[in-house]
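Researcher: Quick test of sequence recovery. Tokens follow.
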């Protein structure tokens, strides 16, 4: 199982460092898929997208509460406190979760506006708008999955055991 951990860590590190590039890559992939799959209508998916993003919003709120409770009790934060990194790590995680919450709320609002706006006749603008909307949706799902992964890693963190003997 260690090779799985090693093989996915570089993807996670790359994603964390380059979120904007990740979004652009998602935009290109979604654009390519949209071009060749010929979706009938994105408006039909709007209510489903709102439901899914609302669920992810609730999950993010739940993980915000879990993160706050883990700050005092978890082995991870106790270990981080030894190196005086606990406040910085907590602040960064809190910022990541709250930013994701804000983006989810913006997505819900933009989807509601998208659903009631009149149809755009310009095919290029319509295509680019649909791709942007779909790419943002996929990005939010990936971002939520990433946050779940981070909280899971904090919750299951164990201090590495050393090979030193202790004498009694």
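Model:
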């Amino acid at each position: 199982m260690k090779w799985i951990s090693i093989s996915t860590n570089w993807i996670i590190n790359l994603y964390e460092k380059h979120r904007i590039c990740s979004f652009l890559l998602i935009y290109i992939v979604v654009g390519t898929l949209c071009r060749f799959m010929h979706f009938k209508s994105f408006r039909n998916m709007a209510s489903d997208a709102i439901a899914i993003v609302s669920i992810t919003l609730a999950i993010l709120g739940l993980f915000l509460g879990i993160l706050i409770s883990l700050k005092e009790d978890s082995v991870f934060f106790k270990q981080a406190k030894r190196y005086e990194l606990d406040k910085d790590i907590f602040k960064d995680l809190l910022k990541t979760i709250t930013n994701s919450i804000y983006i989810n709320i913006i997505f819900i609002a933009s989807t509601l506006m998208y659903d009631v706006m009149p149809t755009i006749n310009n095919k290029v603008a319509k295509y680019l708008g649909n791709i942007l909307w779909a790419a943002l949706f996929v990005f939010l799902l990936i971002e939520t999955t990433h946050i779940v992964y981070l909280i899971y890693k904090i919750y299951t963190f164990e201090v590495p055991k050393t090979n030193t003997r202790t004498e009694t």
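The chain has six helices and no strands.
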